[in-house]
């Protein structure tokens, strides 16, 4: 019905006309729109089912999928600006339809809550839920559940805090008690040690330790140990008497002797070469270094075997490094050359001093001979 028809129908009553117009407008805004050609066409363009409208996420996913295919800037062979504008318009139409559906459902829920609230007795609003919350019963129930969760969380936190305070107080008391007992024990031990030391010193001053049996003799190697098994004690004594050593001790000794021989051999080779080395000497030095590297690799394998049989991890050995070993050899050679130069300088100075003394003695003997000769002539 148009506005002119309403004016002709209610020409004398403007208030009634205004009420009827506002009622019609409100019904048009709040009424659920029917699926017309525009909505069906939009769903078809977005490739969505026409029997039911999908969720917002599905609509957005469909729009993005179509945009990747038909957007002018997508670079796809199916890009079409006109078709993409239609898809974008269809996307807006479907979103508006979903928004209207959501608004209408919210209005319906609010009307039902208002009906329930209007029929419920007013004096019973705060009889349940411990007087917590406001609004409809469903809203008050949700608020009361949240209130109970918060209260339970606070109670748990308070209980844990009190338990931690109690445990900390007990631990502090135990630590203080242990500290006192330990300090007391240390004081007693120190007092006893001082007393024993004083008694020993007094006995030594009086000479009580003189003329003791076994004085100046070595301690007995196989003195009986009451805490050891006799069989184990006898077996150990037999092994030691026959020169037995554990395998890991033998391997450790071999490793140390081998690395020492290798270092000495390489040091002798470097000492025979000049400083600085010539080209031929450098080639010879590199050959000896290569041989040393191969021997060092074999020695590192023996170190691995030693680490597998050693009884304690703290006694294990690390691999020998080629660069560090060469650095040790070069430093030893440099120190040897410096000491040799100092020895040569000292020897030269000694020879010069001896030559000067010999020359001075010769000159003195010559003077004495002339004096004796002159005395003989005078006589």
Automatic annotation (TrEMBL):
Transmembrane segments: none annotated. It comes from the Eukaryota. Residues 101-122 are annotated as: Disordered. SMART domains: DnaJ (SM00271). Residues 41-99 form the J domain. This is DnaJ subfamily C member 28.
């Amino acid at each position: 019905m148009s506005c002119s028809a309403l004016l002709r129908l209610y020409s004398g009553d403007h208030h009634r006309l205004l009420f009827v117009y506002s009622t019609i407008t409100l019904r048009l805004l709040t009424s659920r729109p029917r699926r017309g050609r525009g909505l069906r066409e939009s769903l078809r363009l977005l490739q969505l089912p026409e029997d039911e409208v999908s969720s917002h996420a599905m609509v957005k996913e469909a729009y993005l999928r179509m945009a990747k295919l038909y957007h002018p800037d997508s670079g796809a062979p199916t890009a079409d600006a006109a078709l993409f504008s239609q898809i974008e318009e269809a996307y807006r139409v479907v979103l508006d339809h979903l928004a209207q559906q959501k608004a209408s459902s919210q209005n319906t829920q609010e009307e039902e809550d208002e009906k329930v609230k209007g029929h419920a007795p007013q004096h019973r609003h705060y009889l349940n839920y411990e007087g917590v919350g406001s609004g409809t019963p469903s809203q008050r129930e949700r608020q009361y559940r949240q209130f109970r969760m918060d209260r339970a969380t606070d109670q748990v936190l308070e209980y844990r805090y009190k338990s931690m305070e109690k445990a900390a107080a007990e631990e502090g008391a135990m630590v203080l008690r242990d500290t006192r007992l330990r300090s007391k024990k240390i004081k007693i031990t120190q007092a006893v040690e001082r007393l024993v030391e004083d008694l020993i010193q007094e006995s030594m001053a009086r000479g009580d330790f003189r003329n003791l049996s076994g004085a100046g003799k070595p301690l007995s190697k196989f003195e009986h140990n009451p805490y050891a098994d006799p069989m184990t004690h006898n077996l150990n004594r037999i092994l030691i008497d026959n020169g037995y050593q554990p395998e890991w001790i033998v391997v450790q000794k071999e490793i140390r002797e081998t690395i020492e021989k290798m270092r000495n051999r390489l040091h002798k080779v470097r000492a025979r070469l000049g400083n600085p080395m010539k080209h031929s000497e450098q080639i010879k030095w590199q050959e000896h270094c290569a041989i040393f590297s191969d021997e060092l690799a074999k020695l590192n394998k023996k170190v691995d075997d030693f680490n597998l049989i050693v009884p304690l991890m703290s006694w294990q050995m690390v691999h020998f490094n080629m660069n560090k070993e060469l650095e040790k050899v070069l430093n030893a050679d440099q120190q040897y050359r410096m000491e040799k130069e100092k020895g040569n300088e000292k020897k030269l100075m000694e020879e010069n001093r001896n030559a000067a003394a010999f020359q001075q003695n010769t000159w003195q003997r010559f003077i004495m001979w002339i004096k004796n000769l002159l005395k003989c002539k005078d006589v």
